[in-house]
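User: My advisor asked me to double-check a structure prediction for MFS transporter before group meeting. I don't want to rely on an old file, so could you generate it fresh from this sequence?
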Amino acid sequence: MTVTRTPWTLALCWLTVVFEGFDIVALGAAIPRLLDSQHAGITALDATFIATISLVGVGIGAAAIGPITDRFGRRLPLMMCVLVFSVFTLIFPVMPNTSLLALVRFIAGLGLGGCMPVAVTMMQESAHENGKAHSSTLTMTGYHAGAVAASLLAIVFGAHWGWLFTVGGVLGLVLLPVMWAKLPETSEVAGTTGQAGQHPRVRPGDVLRPPYLRTTIGLWIAAFMGLLLVYGLNTWLPQLMRGAGYSVSNSLLMLFVLNVGAIIGLLVGGRIADRRGVKGTTMFWFGAAAVLLLLLSIRIQNEILLNAVVLVTGVFVFCAQVLVYGFVGYLYPRRIVGTGMGLTSGVGRLGAIVGPWFTGLLVASGAAYPGGFYLFAAAAVLGVCAVALIPKPRTTTPDDEDAAPAARAA
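Assistant: Sure, here is a fresh prediction for MFS transporter from the sequence you gave:
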């Protein structure tokens, strides 16, 4: 079953992913203000814990949502995730102590974590059979749009950091009635009315049984390495480049250029993967990322050439990670694709925690340059190896166990 994609599906799934980019940058922009004002007695250690527990919540939410959507459909669970995220984002600024700040961020993370994998799955299910990778990359441009929006609002609001979370929470609540009225169900459990029905219970362990075990392990490792790169670079690139002797202003410009490259990569990478093959394209994208990251470990004197290398690095690094999600729709049958997507996203979130943490250790030890780029290049190489482990998928989505792509690997 393929659901015809409507403009509302595209718009609402894209906007759902916008929240993640907005939220990550909003917290990053708010932390210096929280520390300066000592809001609720917060310390640097508290801020680190709050940021980490947020990502833990995101990872748990992503892993848990898959089996729920495979059983009950995509539409209602997605709206519940948006509701949880919005409410707990809205109340975050008024929490009176650091324990409640951390708890609220954890719960908001649970909702936020469920949003992205469900939105990407819905986009894949409403895409043409050979357009799943492009659907994934197109949806994920919303992440970067949200990050840019939060950055601009952080400048506008200045010391009034709480308004960032107010805007994020209110926009989510405003989006909910539109989703209720306009977002169609895409799962095969949908009935003739377009509302979700109920599928036999799906267990997370279903993706760890033959013939999917090899596929799942490969996806999990690739997603882990991909998000290690994305979050590690977005968190520490300016500091790494400062360690190489570049100015602060140039380092911040490079972070902007890196994310411009990300958007370019997402717009073109999915189309190439759908036409040329998802497996080969994802391996090439990870491999190119490794080469470019090694190149950045060498000090480049020419500023134009340097920014060109950073731009192209963004094209490959960010899109490689998203192509892993595009892979999922080709590898699992419909009855467990939501579980596969959620668990791949959830395990990948561990990389989002490990990447900034380990790079931070390198910064603290004075080995961030060029050591950080060696770390990132090694992660990209492991991404290539992980994707190589995955059986080559069929060109169309399998509809049942007998058509399992892993059993028909080329």
